[in-house]
Structure formats: C-alpha cells, structure tokens
Amino acid sequence: MKMNRALSLPRLSVCFAVLIVSVAVGICAGAVWVSPAELLSDALTDGLSQNERVIIYIRLPRISASILAGAALAVSGAIIQAVLGNPLAAPNIIGVNAGAGFFTVLCISLFPAAVSLLPAAAFFGALTAVLLVFGIARKTGASRMTIILTGVGVSSLMNAAADTVTTLFPDSLIGMAAFKAGGVSGVTFDSLFPACIFIAVGIAAALLLSHDLDILSLGDNTARSLGMNVGAVRFALLAAAAMLSGAAVSFAGLVGFVGLVVPHIARKIARSSENTAVLPVCAIIGGAFLTLCDTLARTLFSPYELPLGIVVSYIGVPFFIWLLIKKKGGRRSA
Asked: Which pTM value belongs to this model?
C-alpha cells in the first residue's frame, strides 16, 4: 500500500516521536518519580531493584494497555465517522462501547473463568450495537442528528441491560464501577494477549480497506458506479470497527471520547481527509493520547488515582460540545 502524499515521512516521524515521549513520561512518572539516571543505575546492578519491579510489573503493562486501547478506539472512531458520514460519531456516543460492555459483563457473569473469551464477547456486542444503530438510522432517515439520537437510545438500552446483569450476578461482577469508569490499572501482559490479537487483526483490516473507505465516503451511488459491493464493504468496515472497540473495552472498560477526539486531531496532522493517511496517524496518536491521559490519571492527585475514563471525559466532553456548536454553525447538521 502506497503512502498517501499528504502523509509525509516527517509528519509520521513526529507522530512516533510523540508516542515515544508519552511512553517515556509514563515510565518515569507515578507515585514515585523514577529519573532516567536512576533507571540506568539500576540496570547496571545485579537483580531487580524496587524501581525496576514497579516499571516492569505495573507501569509497562499499563502503558502497553493504553497504547493498544488508544490505537483501537481511535481507528474505530475514524472508521465509524467515515462510514456513517458523521464527524460527531464515535464508539461511545453511538452505543458501540456500551454494546461491548454489556456483552463483556454477560460473559463474565456466565463464564467467570473464561478470560480469553472477553474480546470475542465484546466484539459481538459492539457489532450488534453498531449494526442496530445503522439499521435504525437508515430506516428513519440517516441524518447526523438521527444517528446521534439513535446511538443515545441504543447506549441507554445496553447500559440498562448491563445493570440488570450486574444486579442478578452481584458476586461475579465485583469491580463493575471501575469497569464503567474505564481504566487500565491492574492489567497484565497475559490478560492483554487475547485482546492484542483482535486489535492487530482489526487495525490490519482497517488499513487494507482504507482505500475502499475513501471510495465509500463519496456516496453509495458513486461507489457502486466504481464496481464496489457497498453492502459487503460497509459490513466489513463496521465489523473491523466493532472488533477494535470491543477488544479495547474488554480490558480497558468503558473509556469514552478517544474515538471522537483523536480522528479530528489526526486529520489536522495528516492535512488530509483521506483515510489512507488518517488511519495510521489515528493509531499512533491514539496510543500516545491515552498513555498521557493514564499518566495524568495516576499522577495528578498522587497517591490517589483517578479513573482513566474520567480524565478522558474532562477532555472529550468540551471537545464534543465545541464540535457540535461548530457543525451547527456551519449548517452541516442535517
């Protein structure tokens, strides 16, 4: 796949540099600051020091989880915005995250020992939600506001279903408050492995279909005139978005607004609306964004820690309101 002209090597390098800086800050920052000099000194000594244990067993798994979840949610958001033709759409806003969360809760309650099933369960939940929203919106007139309102309704339904399961299986679902708030505390590399496979497959599928996504964005009639099977391509793209969002929710909980904020930032960085350029930037910047948010969550009020989802919401909600006002002012909110 050729690199889009708008996605120049310097811009891609800047994105990777931002990601590296966010990882470095995440490694050093925490309840106890560990300087690079201390890390180097500890590395030269025999055995694992306390700082090294904290980094290897706590911070590195959290950073890895943040990168994976951020990349997955950002790419998922970019796909959903392009497929639905709505810049206000995002996995959490149109109920995709809620669907993934409901199926995750259901899987935990029915099969508490089957941790490896969580990404698959979350994927089917996310896919159910996104297809439900898309189907209802198409039947009622797929305007931007209709999609948002449909998503709110589906999200409320899925959250109510999750609360019902939580009520019926209280012993199996201890810690659901933390899951709903969203966060990556307590994750391990072993628990990330199943979701990592889903995210890798989802991002690979998104990149392979990015050119088709650009064609689909031109409209159904134009896409059909170019020989595209619109229904099959749309379903494949929505399935990839659901796979990414579901896998992220399975270990990071209901973290919102990453899929809304990051795609808009990525388009500014790539200086292009073409998804062949936007999706790679989304994956990199999404990982960096959520890593920095997690670092803020565990350092702002140290030794107390805020849930990751709260920090992201403080950034995402004002952005969503600003975006809503901007689109309304531009008379593009049919």
From this structure: 0.87
